Amino acid sequence: MSSDAIPESPRPVRPHDLNALEDDIRELNTALRHLGSLSLEELIKIIRQPGWTTPAEYELVRGLVQQMRAQVTLTDQLRATLLRGAQLVGAKA
Questions:
Q1: Could you give the CA distance from residue 12 to residue 15 in angstroms, rounded to a whole number?
Q2: Are 15 and 21 in contact (CB under 8 A)?
Q3: pTM, whole model, 2 decimals?
Q4: For the chain, give me the number of helices (H) and strands (E)?
Q5: Euclidean distance between CA atoms 36 and 90, whole angstroms
Q6: Alpha-carbon distance values, 66 to 20, 61, 93 (Å)
Q7: Is 61 exposed, middle or buried (0-12, 13-18, 19+ CB in 10 A)?
Q8: Closest Cα partner for 63 from 53, 77, 51?
Q9: Which of 38, 52, 53, 64 could anchor a disulfide with 57, C-beta 3.0 to 4.6 Å?
Q10: How far apart are CA 80 and CA 73, in angstroms?
Q11: Greatest CA separation found in the chain?
């Protein structure tokens, strides 16, 4: 950006649509509850079958399982941060 360029104006603030935000929160809550009801017990049965996998396939599945665990942990941390932050909005110091 050159020194004589016109600075960008800030994005206009959209009015708060609390109904839409509430709908989004409810949809997220439903998705999180649904995730909690999913089971990988079938995967445990599959991997125990004789001759199930090659070393490469094992690494792929193991890597995916580890990353999914990390995502679940991160999602829980994000949920806690969201709630803490929302509670602090407008709080008197």
A1: 9
A2: no
A3: 0.71
A4: 3, 0
A5: 32
A6: 34, 9, 40
A7: middle
A8: 53
A9: 53
A10: 11
A11: 71
In the prediction, which pLDDT does 3 show? 57
Here the tokens at position 90 are 């407008």
List, for residues 41-69, the tens digit of each pLDDT value: 999 999 999 999 999 999 999 999 999 99
Residue that is written with structure tokens 């809550």 in the block: 29
Assigned token pair, 29: 């809550």
Can you state the angle between helices 55-88 and 18-37, rounded to 10 degrees?
A: 140
CB 53 within 8 A of CB 61: yes
| Phi, then psi, of 57 in degrees rounded to 5 | -65, -40
